[in-house]
Amino acid sequence: MLREIKRLSGGVAAAALCACSFPAGQFACLAFVALVPLILVAEEGAVKGSFLRGYTAGSLFFVTALFWIGHVTVIGLLLLSAYLALYWGFFSAGVAWSSSWAWGVRLVFLPALWTALEYIRAHLFTGFGWAALAHTQSANIPLIQMANVTGVYGVSWAVLVVNVVIARWVHVTWRREKVPRLLAGVTLVLVLMVVAGMGWKYVLGGDKKMAGRESFRVALIQPNIALADYANPLLKVAIVEKHLALSREAMRQGPQMIVWPESAFPAFIWEYPALFEKVCDFARENHVQLLAGAVTRNGGKYFNSALLINENGVLSSTYSKQHLVLLGEYIPLRKAFPLLERLVPIDDFTPGTGRGIMGLMPAAAGEPVFFAPLICFEDTLPDLARLAVKDGAGFLVNLTNDAWFKASRQSRMHLNNAVFRAVENGVPLVRATNTGMTCAISPAGVVSGCAVDAAGRSVMAEGVAVVDIVPESHRRTFYTQHGDVFAGLCFLIVLGLSVFFKCRYAVPCIRQNQETREV
């Protein structure tokens, strides 16, 4: 009984430490030891028991880390956490299953297993990549530079390597064995991660290459509109007027482009043509390009779109969101399960197609600047951003609302995702949000220019951010060119080692059974 309580407490400790490391900030260092208690208790038990302990720990972690989803749906939070906890359970089972392997092999296997599970979680059932271990390190600029080779999954792998090494060090210390090699191993891993991280910035001269190049000035509008106001037909004109007022304020700093957040135009354009024309008039009168979120329609289909109005006041480009939010923007199997429609009374959006590369003409004569919009949670999808940059986007623009989750850690966790899209592809990323955090992210992952109100708040606050960015239209990172090769390698490592040890232990058992039958 006491042993089982000890094992359960290890999982609870891991969940608590991991939850405290989110969002990235002053406690981010806890991520390097957060999973140590779970690894220690998992390797002492049977596979089934370890799975259950890992699943329990994972449930506690995701409920705690993603509590902001409860602002929208408590049942959804519990169901989502129950599903995501499976990945912690599988990892814990893998720790137990590999407990008899050589230490060096486990150092390769366990980080690869965690990385492969994170990749599956980010893609299976439309994917949910939030709260990846790497996101705790979004403010650790030297370390995250390796993402332009490995993607976000490489940083998770590096953090897990440290957890595994420290777990081993604690284990052998309890047994009073010699530990110099393990200490050397921890030091070597940390040094290699820092060297890999500093490579882009100093060895390849990434920052120096950006310096001295022509910049592009962008104004980002954060209106802080309540969700209830969006739904009020009497306030639609006032909402647009508020965006225009903030844009006039931003024009004092001479931006070449203004970005409004997702759903900034709250009415259907075809029902309020005069109001939309007023927005176009603003762009024409101020000779500025304006990107705004709005609902569009094509036949009987509706789209969550980003509209680019050029400096002549003409709608020049439209991008429609491709990755829709389950039960937020569409209901799966609507006809087969009509009950879902009654429980979640929404109309379906239609996903857009194509990568939506948009072109801008700088104020000074020169080559056009290309960018790609990412609407709402699309900046959490590595492939979508990667393919857009590979097609020629020099920077990325995220338009999102985030008002659904109020003043919670969601705003910072959403930003953590966006940081990796910039680093992975070596391009700037700017964010225009309704409630925060509105800011710019450099190709190195440095966050700057956050919109704040008079009280200095960046979330649930009204503000304007005017930032200078340097579009990167020529250099392409390894990750942009080749994608998640590192995650694929982790898959192969897990598969290869699993098959090898399964066969290795299966052959003696078969021989023993044959000898028994012969006797």
Query: What proportion of the residues form beta strands (DSSP E)?
Result: 5-15%
Shape: elongated
Work out the count of structural domains.
2
Alpha-carbon distance between the termini? Answer: 42 Å
Question: What is the CATH topology descriptor of the largest domain?
Answer: Nitrilase/N-carbamoyl-D-aminoacid amidohydrolase
What CATH first level of the largest domain would be assigned? Alpha Beta
Give the overall average pLDDT.
Answer: 86
Unreliable sequence segments: 200-208, 515-519
> Over the alpha carbons, how many angstroms does the gyration radius reach?
25 Å
The proportion of residues forming helix, as a percent range, comes to: 40-55%
Largest sheet: 6 strands, mixed
Order of helices and strands: HHHHHHHHHHEHHEHEEEHEEHEHEEEEHH
CATH architectural designation of the largest domain: 4-Layer Sandwich
Number of helices: 18
DSSP strand tally: 12
Fourth CATH level, the homologous superfamily of the largest domain: Carbon-nitrogen hydrolase
Major sheet strand order: 5-4-3-2-1-12
* Class per helix and strand makeup: alpha/beta
Keywords:
519 residues, alpha/beta, Nitrilase/N-carbamoyl-D-aminoacid amidohydrolase, 2 domains, six-stranded mixed beta sheet, 12 strands
Can you characterise this structure?
The chain has helices at 2-20, 36-42, 47-65, 74-97, 103-121, 141-144, 147-150, 152-174, 180-203, 206-210, 227-231, 236-251, 273-286, 338-343, 382-390, 410-425, 478-482, 485-518, and strands at residues 216-222, 257-259, 289-298, 301-309, 315-320, 358-360, 369-375, 395-400, 429-433, 439-441, 447-448, 463-469. The protein has 519 residues and is an alpha/beta fold. The protein has two domains: 2-204 and 485-510; 217-481, Nitrilase/N-carbamoyl-D-aminoacid amidohydrolase, CATH 3.60.110.10. The strands form two sheets. The protein has a six-stranded mixed beta sheet. A six-stranded mixed beta sheet has the order 6-7-8-9-10-11, covered by helices on one side. Strand 4 (301-309) and strand 5 form a beta hairpin. The longest helix is centred in the last third of the chain and has 34 residues, at 485-518. It is elongated, with a radius of gyration of 25 Å. Mean pLDDT is 86; it is low at 200-208 and 515-519.
